Amino acid sequence: MKKLLLATCVFSMLALVVIAQNKPQIKFGEETFDFGTIKEEKGPADHKFTFTNAGTAPLVIQGVRSSCGCTTPSWSKEPVLPGEKGYVTARYNPRHRPGPFRKSLTITSNADAPTKVLFIKGVVEPKPKTIADEYPNKIGAIRMRYRSLNMGKLTTEKPFTRSFKLYNDSDKDVKFLEKADKPAYVTVKIEPQVLKPQQTAMLNVTYDPVQKNDFGFVTDRLVIYTDEAEQNRKDLRIVATIEEYFPAMTPEQLAKAPKLIFDKTIYDFGNIKKGDKVTTDFVLTNSGKSDLSVRKVKANCGCTVSQLEKDILKPGESASLKVTFNSAGRRGSQQKSINIFSNDPTSPTQRLIIKGKILETGQ
């Protein structure tokens, strides 16, 4: 009985060996390729990995999946006979991908080991930037990085100045005129006033948040002029985020300050019938020790309207903020925010969220 059992085991093992030997086997000469340094401006780089079918049955590559859209694979589409060679090619596109890279190719086949992973690596040397790359926006002879001049986050402590580069992309001098269309709280100075060909000037913008008298994200129009015969008018936009300034306060001062809290900060309307207006109320409370002043309530969408019951709250006092969302012209899931700006020194800007899903007719 023992001899029979032993013979059966030996036979099974031999059968497995025979089955394994009757399968294709994929053997690569290399499994990782280093491109070294490649130049971005030269475009895609290719490398062909060569393999041999070391098995006794035809080998078929069923697919090759890359780890990144920057790598495009190709491979032998016909069955590779025993002893014959096939290939897998990796094409790496270095555009907008400076620096080191390491990507993989996962190969699926009918081989005894059905999955195989190859790797490519290297370093992309970025292409030198042209003037058009550095200053992509052009109006007449003048190039600039952006037409929106971002002043960043400002406080009401004092006026803030930021400088933006302008480039003369012509072969003639360009003179900036004293004339400018701008709000009263914006001051503009361009140095030098006469800009030589292929040279840069600094557009210095000074913004006074106190005169602006607003909070949160703000935008203003700025037009500057040159002596060019054509396109002498440069339409720009100034953007900024304004917050109230609070000087450093002692723990005792903070303990006596106003403090704004809400009964909730998020409200979900659920399903909303298209075209309907829906309303909810948020309750504001001053849990501090001095009067709370709500400076401004600002929604991020014209579809959302807010109405504050009162903007000065005594210590312990509460007020209602009614928020109405108009679903007309909207579709699908919606999320809108309402920013509340106050004299709470610990949280001068707070955000409420409303959301819901707009149903199409018949849903």
Into which percentage range does the β-strand content fall?
over 45%
C-alpha Rg, in Å?
A: 34 Å
Q: What is the CATH third-level topology name of the largest domain?
A: Immunoglobulin-like
Helix content: under 10%
Q: What is the arithmetic mean of pLDDT? A: 93
CATH architecture of the largest domain: Sandwich
The major pleated sheet works out as: 5 strands, antiparallel
Report the principal-axis shape.
Answer: extended
Compute the number of structural domains: 3
What is the β-strand count? 27
The CATH homologous superfamily of the largest domain is named Immunoglobulins
State the helix count: 4
> Uncertain runs with pLDDT below 50, 5 residues or more?
6-20
Q: What distance lies between the first and last C-alpha atoms, to the nearest angstrom?
A: 73 Å
> From the helix content, strand content and strand pairing, which structural class follows?
mainly beta
CATH class type of the largest domain? Mainly Beta
Strand numbers in spatial order across the main sheet: 9-10-12-16-14
